[in-house]
Design goal:
This protein is of the alpha/beta class and 375 residues long. The protein has 13 helices and 14 strands.
């Protein structure tokens, strides 16, 4: 069974998408674009610029976001204005005439790509996703396993813990998406490994919910911040031993892989080698705009990950539908499935589905559903 461990469904981004207001959703979206790998350009002449236009240098939280009339456009674009000039971010594929992705869009991609099952991740830029992810999982239980997500920096509060319980107990979401970029909402006033978050991590540990952990190098977006975050992650992994973790997006190529081989600090290796951590294999979403398919650069780095950590530690994800801004969905799979010839058939089976299947118990759940007498 081929399982995509990183896919998305979402409502039309012009609305609040589950957040308390459209403005909250807009600010989440704008924050995502401040350091995007997508093409950012001036509409008048196509001149490429940087997402740094969207925030004040040195102010990495929401308080540093500029007032640029940030808004949802068409043809996969997010639009804004600076000094009277219109700019766009080509964040979604051009063929996405309206920025909306119902479950059926992902199902169509999976049919073409030959993917059996997908894990629906989350993130504030997509919306407050618990209800919509649960809707997709309920409508298509054979095809989707959905994650829950919270306002990460306030997950330990009474409201945060209540939402965790609702998402798990009532909506049937049995794994957590947790992103460090979410802490920007409060200008990084607390760390993810702060003792204050102990009530949240303890409950996740008690319920044995896997955590899909997205760890950009916050708060300063540099190597020192990334190392500190990996030290903190290892501390959590050592403390909450009933949680299994997935490092979403995998290692940062820009910090450790630009030479064509991995050069990890010891502190980062210590976290990556933790027995409770899986590492996502997902290169086209960030590097597909610079590398050409079938991405020999990515294959060299994948080979390095296999050699360092073993195939049992790796899980493949696409980040569809976003990935189609750079390549087709099928290509986001085939650079591994067809072109990573250094992997054995057994290694491909584990990376392309087996490891995440064991993590989330997908085959077991589907077998129970299909058993005689089961509704």
């Amino acid at each position: 069974m081929i399982i995509d461990c990183h896919a998305h469904v979402f409502q039309h981004w012009a609305g609040p998408c589950g957040h308390s207001s459209r403005e909250i959703h807009r600010r989440y979206m704008q924050k995502v674009q401040t350091r995007t790998s997508s093409r950012v350009f001036r509409v008048r002449d196509g001149t490429e610029v940087s997402g740094s236009l969207l925030f004040h240098k040195g102010r990495n939280g929401w308080s540093g976001l500029k007032d640029v009339n940030f808004r949802v456009g068409i043809y996969g674009r997010l639009d804004f204005m600076v000094d009277g000039e219109d700019y766009s971010v080509q964040y979604m594929p051009v063929g996405m005439q309206e920025i909306v992705a119902p479950p059926e869009l992902m199902l169509a991609n999976m049919m073409v790509g030959g993917v059996d099952h997908a894990v629906l991740q989350a993130g504030g830029g997509y919306g407050a996703m618990n209800d919509y992810n649960a809707f997709a999982q309920t409508q298509y239980p054979e095809r989707f396993t959905a994650l829950l997500n919270l306002d990460e920096a306030r997950a330990h509060t009474k409201a945060g813990l209540a939402e965790l319980e609702r998402a798990h107990r009532s909506l049937g979401l049995n794994a957590v998406y947790f992103a460090l970029d979410g802490f920007a909402r409060y200008d990084f006033d607390i760390r993810f490994d702060s003792p204050a978050l102990e009530p949240f991590w303890s409950r996740v540990n008690t319920w044995k919910l896997p955590v899909f952990f997205e760890a950009p190098p916050t708060p300063d977006y540099d190597g020192a911040s990334y190392v500190a975050n990996m030290i903190g992650l290892k501390r959590l992994m050592d403390s909450y031993t009933d949680i299994r973790w997935v490092l979403v997006m995998g290692p940062p190529v820009g910090l450790y892989g630009m030479s064509g081989r991995w050069e990890f600090p010891d502190e980062v290796l210590a976290a990556y080698r933790h027995p409770n951590l899986l590492i996502e294999v997902m290169f086209p979403i960030t590097w597909g705009g610079r590398w050409d398919y079938p991405y020999p650069e990515a294959q060299a780095l994948l080979r390095g990950m296999r050699d360092l950590f073993g195939a049992d530690k790796l899980v493949w994800g696409s980040d569809a539908p976003n990935v189609e801004r750079f390549c087709t969905y099928k290509q986001s799979l085939d650079y591994v499935r067809r072109h990573s010839t250094f992997l054995t058939a057994g290694e491909k089976d584990r990376i392309l589905g087996g490891n995440v299947d064991r993590l989330l118990g997908i085959s077991e759940r589907l077998a129970r559903r299909r058993a005689p007498g089961t509704d």
